[in-house]
């Protein structure tokens, strides 16, 4: 059975690109801090405020996560249903130039290398109309991924990224459309030696 | 020491008390929500962050937060979730004075005057992180001492923060209420802060409202960025304990472009630039009693019970104007009232916009990489041709190419075909007008065998007499027949005289046959006839072909051609017709006749006829046709296999 933390992390991963970055990174930070009751009180409200619909699978994750953390069932029931979002309105750009391996990327790399279960670290830049490029860090495979996501977010914020986008994905399985595009539009920064040996 | 801030009346005051306890972005977001009337959401956001981070708060702040969360009817229960209150003694945060060229100061000076009318604005740099996920330090903290009776403090804080953010400056904006007590956090910040913008005078400005005259003038101005001179004049330094902040130093060379765009102001600033330079930088901050306090004396006990009302502030328009208006070297004890606001002089060196890259967003653009290959599209058809013929051509052919390097660059195709070097038409390629872009038009004109049959009527629009050789009528006949394709199907070709239209069958198949005729016994049986005339028409049409790997394979050494050239008698051609044929033409005719003599159906020739049927269009079809032609050589060598 999926633990509430895992379910909440998976749901927050799936909400990438659907909730504002400034809110999403904060919710992930709350989860990493153990703020379960906070997420139970705020996550359904934010979904309703931003008119974010959930698929059936995502609704299961929501109920698994915040349903046990004191979320209001009335608010949970009010969350809009939605189909599987397969349309990505943003573009991702991979930069292989050495200039992108800045101190923030090196700091992220240092953390990821020491976290158990990490398989690969990628970095890309999300491009949207009228907004500057946003760094997107993708980590494939990690134990306690919500903890790693929170740590990497704080590292990036210390380097000036006000809305860090850290996506810690499971090493296997089909990622959502947003993350598929992010993986395609990113460049690998590091790969685990064990993963390379298995490949 | 317990925080003596009296908050709880408004959400803005609660947020002031939480400054330094949550991250600055959260505080700014909460203030924005308060400004737009969403206090409940602001309280929920701040409470959630504090609860998630298990922040330890003083009793007053904690109780106020619990009350606010309850009033906002959030689902959070900070009273139960937050740790117990802990009294604190002072603040843990440390502040420093901003640098002379602090970009935040430049951005503040560039703000619209109305936004900061009647306010004392100071700037400090916080050197300690705030919140559980802090941003980089030192973090700029803008302290605004708003006048009493002015706009609501939360609205002012929001507007200033948004204006700074639009200038790409991220700073915390703390708008202090004139009637509220200072927290330890803000008191420490004020002790280290440097004034950036002063109020209209040095009097405690919190009881004053902004003067209407400058505001009216600003409202009538087309550019709202106009800053009144009253707010930008240098305050009186006689009664102050430290000199005002040097405006040039604060301005530095960073000011938004909105001010730099004003040419008259810039000229005025250039004119006054040397006069505005004042020596002092902020080294002391006066407290409420007017005593001097050094900028580094942040450890001194602060007077936190009241806001320093008479903090001197530098103005955006310091000394120069006053010196011009009042020639007395000593400034008056109090700033002279200014009759009307004037445009702010902008030094020429502050045209550079204020940009504070916090997160690196300027990544290399991939477009230049794409564009780098863009211009190559012009030369792309030519580029791969040069090395390939040299690699495949025999040494003598390659040596012949070296003699004409310019022609190779512009028209590489003839270099790949040694036979073209003999044609007079090839020399015309050195004509500067015969560029690659002109090839589709010039090639049919220069080719007497093609222009008559040009379906695009390109040749018809041009005077054929200038370019057509005397034997043009003959080519008309055989070209028309060749294009009809019936020549290859007619069985009477064995009995009848050789038809001139067969001469054109070499357009594609000539080089293919060159490699095959060495093994063809029929072709070898016929002795090569001496060539009557070296001129071979239409060979230069291959110069139109784009570069592709396939045409390179067609380049064959000239060696077998001399041995296999059939005579005119063997081909059944008239001497004048034979003179029009090239070596490859004659080889093709010999090949065709050999096949006919063998009794095979001219299927291969018909295929060649299909390819040649688009001969006049070859410049447009070379990309496909030649690729196929490069492989047709082997196909034609064994037509029964292809026919199945």
TrEMBL record, chain A:
The lineage of its organism: Bacteria, Bacillati, Actinomycetota, Actinomycetes, Pseudonocardiales. This is Uncharacterized protein.
Automatic annotation (TrEMBL), chain B:
Residues 301-317 have a biased composition (Low complexity). Coiled coil: none annotated. Residues 201-374, 397-578, 595-644 are annotated as: Disordered. Residues 214-224, 259-280, 635-644 have a biased composition (Basic and acidic residues). Residues 622-631 have a biased composition (Gly residues). Residues 328-346 have a biased composition (Pro residues). Residues 505-523 have a biased composition (Acidic residues). It comes from the Bacteria. This is Uncharacterized protein. It comes from Pseudonocardia aurantiaca.
């Amino acid at each position: 059975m999926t633990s509430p933390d895992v379910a909440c992390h998976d749901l927050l991963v799936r909400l990438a690109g659907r909730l504002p970055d400034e809110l999403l990174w904060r919710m992930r930070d709350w989860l990493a801090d153990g703020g379960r009751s906070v997420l139970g009180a705020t996550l359904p409200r934010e979904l309703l405020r931003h008119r974010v619909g959930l698929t059936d699978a995502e609704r299961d994750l929501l109920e698994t996560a915040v349903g046990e953390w004191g979320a209001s069932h009335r608010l949970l029931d009010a969350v809009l249903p939605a189909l599987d979002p397969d349309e990505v309105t943003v573009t991702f750009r991979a930069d292989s130039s050495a200039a992108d391996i800045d101190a923030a990327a090196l700091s992220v790399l240092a953390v990821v290398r020491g976290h158990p279960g990490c398989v690969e670290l990628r970095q890309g830049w999300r491009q949207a109309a009228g907004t500057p490029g946003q760094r997107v860090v993708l980590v494939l495979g990690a134990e306690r991924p919500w903890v790693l996501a929170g740590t990497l977010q704080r590292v990036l914020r210390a380097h000036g990224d006000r809305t860090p986008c850290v996506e810690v994905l499971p090493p296997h399985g089909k990622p959502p459309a947003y993350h598929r595009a992010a993986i395609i539009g990113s460049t690998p920064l590091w790969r685990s030696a064990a993963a390379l040996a298995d490949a | 020491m317990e925080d003596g801030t009296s908050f709880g009346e408004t959400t803005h005051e609660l947020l002031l008390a939480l400054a330094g306890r949550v991250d600055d972005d959260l505080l700014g977001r909460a203030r924005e929500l308060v400004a737009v009337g969403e206090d409940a959401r602001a309280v929920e956001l701040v409470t959630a962050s504090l609860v998630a981070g298990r922040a330890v708060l003083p009793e007053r702040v904690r109780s106020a937060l619990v009350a606010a969360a309850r009033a906002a009817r959030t689902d959070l229960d900070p009273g139960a979730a937050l740790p117990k209150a802990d009294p604190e003694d002072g603040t843990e945060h440390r502040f420093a004075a901003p640098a002379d060229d602090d970009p935040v100061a430049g951005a503040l000076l560039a703000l619209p005057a109305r936004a900061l009318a009647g306010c004392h604005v100071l700037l400090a740099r916080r050197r300690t992180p705030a919140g559980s996920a802090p941003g980089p330090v030192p973090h700029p903290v803008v302290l605004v001492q708003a006048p009493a009776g002015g706009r609501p403090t939360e609205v002012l804080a929001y507007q200033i923060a948004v204006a700074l953010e639009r200038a790409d400056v991220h700073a915390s904006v703390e708008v202090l209420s004139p009637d509220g007590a200072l927290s330890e956090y803000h008191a420490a910040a004020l002790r280290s802060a440097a004034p950036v913008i002063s109020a209209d005078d040095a009097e405690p400005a919190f009881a004053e409202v902004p003067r209407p005259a400058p505001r009216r003038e600003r409202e009538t101005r087309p550019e709202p960025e106009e800053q009144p001179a009253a707010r930008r004049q240098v305050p009186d330094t006689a009664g102050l304990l430290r000199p005002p902040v040097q405006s040039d130093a604060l301005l530095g060379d960073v000011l938004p472009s909105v001010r730099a765009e004003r040419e008259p102001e810039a000229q005025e600033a250039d004119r006054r630039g040397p006069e505005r330079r004042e020596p002092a930088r902020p080294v002391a901050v006066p407290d409420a009693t007017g005593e001097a306090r050094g900028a580094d004396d942040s450890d001194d006990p602060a007077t936190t019970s009241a806001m320093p009302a008479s903090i001197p502030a530098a103005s955006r328009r310091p000394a120069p104007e006053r010196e011009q208006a009042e020639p007395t070297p000593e400034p008056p004890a109090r700033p002279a009232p200014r009759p009307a606001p004037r445009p702010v002089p902008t030094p020429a060196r502050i045209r550079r916009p204020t940009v504070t890259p916090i997160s690196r967003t300027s990544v290399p653009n991939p477009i230049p990489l794409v564009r780098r290959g863009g211009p190559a599209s012009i030369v792309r058809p030519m580029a791969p041709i040069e090395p390939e013929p040299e690699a495949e051509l025999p040494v003598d052919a390659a040596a012949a190419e070296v003699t004409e390097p310019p022609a190779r660059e512009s028209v590489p195709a003839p270099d790949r075909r040694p036979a073209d070097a003999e044609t007079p038409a090839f020399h015309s390629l050195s004509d500067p007008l015969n560029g690659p872009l002109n090839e589709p038009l010039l090639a049919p004109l220069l080719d007497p065998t093609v222009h008559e049959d040009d379906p695009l009527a390109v040749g018809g629009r041009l005077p054929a007499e200038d370019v057509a050789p005397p034997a043009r009528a003959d080519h008309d006949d055989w070209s028309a027949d060749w294009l009809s394709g019936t020549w290859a199907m007619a069985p009477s070709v064995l009995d009848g005289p050789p038809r001139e239209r067969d001469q054109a069958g070499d357009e594609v198949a000539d080089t293919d046959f060159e490699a095959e005729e060495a093994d063809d016994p029929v072709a070898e049986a016929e002795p090569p006839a001496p060539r009557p005339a070296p001129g071979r028409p239409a060979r230069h049409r291959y110069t139109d072909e784009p570069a592709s790997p396939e045409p390179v394979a067609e380049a064959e050494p000239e060696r077998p051609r001399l041995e296999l050239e059939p005579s005119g008698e063997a081909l059944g051609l008239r001497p004048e017709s034979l003179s029009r044929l090239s070596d490859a033409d004659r080889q093709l005719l010999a090949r065709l006749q050999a096949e006919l003599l063998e009794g095979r159906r001219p299927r291969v020739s018909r295929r060649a006829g299909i390819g040649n049927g688009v001969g006049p269009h070859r410049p447009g079809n070379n990309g496909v046709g030649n690729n196929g032609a490069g492989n047709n050589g082997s196909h034609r060598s064994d037509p029964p296999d292809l026919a199945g």
